[in-house]
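Below is how a single chain appears once it has passed through the pipeline. First comes the sequence as given, then the structure the pipeline wrote out for it. We keep one example in the README because the format questions we get most often are answered faster by looking than by reading.
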Amino acid sequence: QLQLVESGGGLVQAGGSLRLSCAVSGRAFSRYVMGWFRQAPGKEHEFVAAISWIGGNTYYADIAKGQFTISRDNAKNTVYLQMNSLKTEDTAVYYCAADRAVVAGTERYQYNYWGQGTQVTVSS
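Resulting structure:
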């Protein structure tokens, strides 16, 4: 069974940057696809980005394109979400997720393992 722990959230001014990390333990990290989701106040969970375990294929939601970058370091069993040019609308709890699949999905039901979330707050 996988365990996922997010970190790197915090308070940042609009226009600033943060890098979120998700440390994975329990199984071979390279065998799992990884995704990032977020939930803003008063809104539903939404997909942000995902990366496959082989080939390095990435997927981005429209709200993330050109602003966020997902990457993984298999040697460190860690997936990252680099967030640049942050806006107040990016304020949310960010969750990482994993699944034993080849192709990364964009829906919550496609992921069997979840972290506890990390808060990102963007001020104006």
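The mean pLDDT is 92.

See the next section for the split statistics.
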